[in-house]
Specification:
6 strands; 20% strand; His_PPase_superfam; His_Pase_superF_clade-1; 4 helices; alpha/beta; Rossmann fold; Phosphoglycerate mutase; six-stranded mixed β-sheet
Length: 172
């Protein structure tokens, strides 16, 4: 639970997807084995730090939904509201902010895609993490950022305080 006047965003790029079927549409690509392992590790990492979303805004792509399924398999205490948001598929930072502003719970997780998610993460932070891969936002990268606002509608770029940043999926 986050206190009044405080909102927390957990911003996650989907885990590593499979490329073994060239005929498959991008939207329909599943996770590969490494991606499934990384997403499970992300769920464990989140639970160990108390980063528990009350609402999940997930792109409609197969790989983002599978990432959430693996994260949700961790021992999280909260079972969040899950909203599949087609507008998050390949979304621009502006679209991601628009979707975030519709959130109803104090702690929200967004699962999305590059390049939009990397740009969105960079825009949100007052001071970005020092991690050299932050601006690249590799697969399964996750930023935890807090805002001192009462409502998601009041979130503005450049006002987020970075609480944590993790990369679990290697260098791609």
């Amino acid at each position: 639970m986050t206190p009044l006047g405080h909102r927390r965003l957990i911003l996650t790029r989907h885990a590593k997807s499979a490329w073994d079927d060239p005929a498959l549409e991008d939207h329909d690509r599943p996770l590969n084995d490494r991606g499934r392992r990384s997403a499970r590790e992300l769920g464990d990492w989140m639970a160990s730090r108390g980063y528990e979303p009350e609402e999940v805004l997930c792109s409609s792509s197969r790989r983002t939904q599978e990432t959430w399924e693996k994260v949700a398999g961790a021992p999280l205490e909260v079972r969040p509201i899950l909203r599949i948001e087609p507008g998050l598929y390949q979304a621009s930072p502006e679209k991601m902010l628009q979707v975030l502003r519709t959130a109803t719970q104090p702690t929200v997780m967004i699962l999305g895609h590059n390049p939009g998610i990397a740009e969105f993460a960079a825009q949100l932070c007052a001071r970005p993490p020092l991690d050299p891969d932050f601006r690249r936002y590799p697969t399964c990268a996750t930023l935890v950022v807090d805002f001192q606002v009462d409502d998601w509608k009041d979130v503005r770029p450049g006002e987020g305080s970075v609480m944590d940043f993790v990369r679990l999926d290697g260098r791609d």
